[in-house]
Amino acid sequence: MTYTLTDDSPLLKPFDSGVIHTPHRVFMAPLTRLRAESDGTPTDLQTEYYRQRAGAGLIITEATQSSASAGGAYMNTPGIHNDAQQAKWAEIAEAVHNEGGQIFVQTWHVGRVAHPDLPGGDPVAPSAIAADGKAHGPNGSVPLVTPRALETNEISGIVDAFRTSARRAIDAGLDGVEIHGANGYLLHQFLGDDTNQRTDEYGGSPANRARIVIEIVKAVVDEIGADKVGIRLSPGHKANGMNESDTVPVHQELLRAIADIPLAYVHFLIEPTDPVLATLRPEITVPFLLNTGFAIESDFAQLEKLVADGTADAVIVGRWYISNPDLVERLKKGAELTEPNQATFYAPGAEGYTDYPSLETQNA
Ligand SMILES: Cc1cc2nc3c(=O)[nH]c(=O)nc-3n(C[C@H](O)[C@H](O)[C@H](O)COP(=O)(O)O)c2cc1C
After folding, report:
1. Residue 135 pLDDT exceeds 90
2. Would you say domain 10-363 falls under CATH 3.40.1190.20?
3. CB within 8 A of 46, min separation 6: which ones?
C-alpha cells in the first residue's frame, strides 16, 4: 500500500512539548518485541532496531520493567532497574540521538498477568482475581494463576520503583518516560472496578482506584520533571481480561487530578469513534497523542484529519513502524510500505526485527 503526505499535511508540522521537539507528528508506538536478554538487559540488536527508527521523531520504547518483580508476563522483555540494564539503555539513547531522534522509555508493572514460570513472575495485583488467559513461558503456554493482592504497605514500593526507574532512564540519557497505565497491566488493573475490589484507600470509589496512578505520576514528575513525562491510558480496552464498567468516571478522576501538571503528553489507545474519547478529551490539558489501534489497513487520511481537527496533537503508529523503519520518509515520497510479518513480532533474532529495509538500504 502507498499513501502520500503532502508538504502541507498536518502530520508534517513540527511538534514541541516539554523536552520533545520533532519535525513531524507520526510517532512510534510502544511495541514489545522480546529481544532482550533473559535477565532484562537490552541487547545490541535492540540498539540497532531503535537506531533504524530514529526518524520516528519520538520513539516510545517497548514496555520495560520498573523493578525486578514488575515483569514476568513474557520472556525477554527489558528492564531498567539495575546498572547493567541502564548501561545498555545509554547505548540505545546515544544511537537514537546520533540519528537525530528522541526516545522515551515505557515503564511498566504487569501485575496479575505475570506467571511463576517466568523470571520475576510471582503475580501481585490490586485483588486476588485471575485474568482469563495464558502466559507464554519456557514450558509453553500455561493458564494464568490467581495473583496475590498487594498489602496496602507494599504500594509505596511500587510507586517508588516507577520513580527510581525514571531516574535511571534520565541518567542513561533517554529523553523521558512514558508511564504504562494501559492494556490491562497493573495500573489499569487498579483503575478497573472488575479487577480492583480493595477496601482500603486504593479501592472502591473512582478517586481511590485512580490513587496509585496519580501517586506514580507525581513521584515520577517530582524525580525527573513534568517536561520528561508522559502517560499511556486505554480507557475501556479489554486487553488482558479487563472489563471495567465505569471507564469514564475513573479516567475523569485521574485526568482531573493531574490536570495541573504540565506533562509532556497524555497518550490514549482508543478507537477514534469511541464516545469515551469525546467525553474524556476535554479533560486533557496537555498535548494529546492518539493511537487509533489495531487497524493495520489504517487510513493515514483519517490520521491527518484527527490532527487537523484538533482531536489529537500527534498520532502514534505501531505495526507500520515494525516493517518500515523510515515510515515518514516513505509517506513523504508516497513509496510502497512494507507489510509487517506477524510471525516474527515476538520471535527471537534479527529476522522481522532489524532486517526490514529503509528506502536507502533497499536501493543501495
Ligand atoms: C507486537 C506488539 C507489541 C506491543 N507491545 C506494546 C507495549 O509494550 N506497550 C503498549 O502500551 N502497547 C503495546 N502494543 C500495542 C501498540 O502500542 C499499539 O497500540 C497497537 O499495535 C495498535 O497500533 P497499530 O495499529 O498502529 O499497530 C503492542 C502491539 C503489538 C502489535
Report:
1. no
2. no
3. 33, 35, 36, 78, 88, 92
